[in-house]
Each structure stands twice: as C-alpha cells, then as structure tokens.
Write a sequence for this structure.
C-alpha cells in the first residue's frame, strides 16, 4: 500500500501515542522482507503473520501445508501408541491380578486346578507353572 504522506521510520515508532503510526508503518512496509519487525503488539504480530502468509509464494505454502500434515500424522501415531500402551498395561495388570489370586487359591487348596483355570481364564499349563512357584 502506498501512503506518501506517512514518512516515519522504525526509530520514530515508540510510546503509546504511536499506535496509529505503527499500523501505518506496517501497511507501508508490509511487502518488504526483513524490514518489518515485531513491535510487541499481539494484534500487530497477528497482522504481520497474515501479511507474510498472504504474500508467501505458492511453493512455500505447499511446503508448510505438507509439514502440518506430517506433524498431524506424527501426533496421531503418538496418540495411538499411548492408547495401545495403556490397553496393554491394563491387560497385563489384569492378568497379573488373576495370577496372584489363582496362586493364593492354589496355596489354600480352595478349588481344583481345573476350576481355578476356568474361573480366571488361565490355561492348565499356566496353573501348573503357578503351582511350581509355591
């Protein structure tokens, strides 16, 4: 945008009274690479980012979109891994608890090996292995 009457430079943009000047400066110099800096104003920073994206070349935008998709894929895989890990942990915990109770029942001779296997979903081989640990 061409604003011929606005002639202020970077160094002249300080203090709360220069908010309008900041916006005029951004509009005047928006297309210049490296000339526009962050002024610590969140609204101005957002506007700068939109200007940069809006004036970016198609190749850069395609690359950024590709990186975003790649990051999304990574995030999905991490979340899937965490979910699987939790499920496996729960299954291992449940199996461990079943084995503990089955071992206690074997120790106390409360049920037969076949009954313990049936009640806890363990194989007879697992029951025999537990019995050997007593």
């Amino acid at each position: 945008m061409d604003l011929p009457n606005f002639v202020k430079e970077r160094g002249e943009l300080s203090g709360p009274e220069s908010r309008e000047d900041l916006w005029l400066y951004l509009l005047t110099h928006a297309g210049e690479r490296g000339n526009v800096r962050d002024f610590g104003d969140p609204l101005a920073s957002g506007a700068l980012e939109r200007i940069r994206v809006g004036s970016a070349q198609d190749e850069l935008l395609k690359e950024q979109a590709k990186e975003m998709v790649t990051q999304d894929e990574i995030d999905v895989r991490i979340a899937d891994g965490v979910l699987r890990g939790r499920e496996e942990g729960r299954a291992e915990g449940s199996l461990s608890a079943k084995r503990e109770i089955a071992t206690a029942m074997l120790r106390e001779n409360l049920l037969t090996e076949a009954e313990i296997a049936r009640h806890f979903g363990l194989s007879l081989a697992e029951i025999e292995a537990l019995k050997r640990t007593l």
